[in-house]
């Protein structure tokens, strides 16, 4: 198996876009009023869950997601946005949607939690997959 080298600039840029879209997605302007995060004392606080440390960790997680997805895109020789987006979709369906649905199912959470959270990852994986395919 040939070792492929992902485009680190593309991964970093897409991680920044991931954070920006995530900020908007979970803000009160879009879905933030429908899903609120619990604080340490289990009270809701209008979607403001974390300090800057949580955002820093989330950025690292976005880099990991981008790196692994770019390996899938490169390994499958995707060179068009549509092909990369399809790879992002299948990664979402196989790994993210199934895992998130299981959490909602067993925790007896409202389905709106699944739709909003899984929808964010669907958008991001499709967008990232497409971007990585054309930005090699």
Keywords:
136 residues, mainly alpha, 4 helices, globular
What does this structure look like?
The chain is mostly helical and 136 residues long. It has one domain. Helices cover 68% and strands 0% of the residues. It contains 4 helices and no strands. It has helices at 8-25, 52-75, 81-107, 111-134. α1 (8-25) runs antiparallel to α4 (111-134), α2 packs across α4 (111-134) and α3 runs antiparallel to α4. The chain is globular and about 45 Å long. The two termini are 19 Å apart.
Short description:
The protein is mostly helical. The protein has helices spanning 8-25, 52-75, 81-107, 111-134.
Written as H for each helix and E for each strand, in order along the chain, the element string is HHHH
Helix content: 55-70%
Shape: globular
Strand coverage percent? under 5%
| Global Rg | 16 Å
Mean pLDDT: 87
Uncertain residue ranges? 37-47
Number of discrete domains: 1
Structural class assignment? mainly alpha
């Amino acid at each position: 198996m040939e070792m492929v080298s992902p485009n680190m600039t593309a991964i970093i840029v897409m991680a920044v876009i991931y954070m920006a879209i995530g900020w908007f997605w979970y803000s009160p302007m879009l879905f933030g009023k429908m899903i609120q995060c619990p604080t340490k004392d289990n009270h809701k606080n209008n979607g403001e869950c974390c300090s800057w440390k949580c955002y820093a960790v989330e950025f690292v997680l976005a880099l990991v997601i981008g790196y692994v997805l770019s390996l899938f895109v490169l390994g499958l020789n995707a060179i068009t946005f549509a092909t990369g987006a399809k790879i992002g979709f299948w990664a979402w369906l196989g790994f993210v949607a199934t895992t998130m649905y299981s959490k909602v199912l067993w925790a007896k959470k409202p389905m709106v939690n699944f739709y909003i959270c899984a929808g964010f990852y669907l958008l991001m994986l499709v967008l990232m997959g497409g971007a990585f395919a054309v930005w090699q």
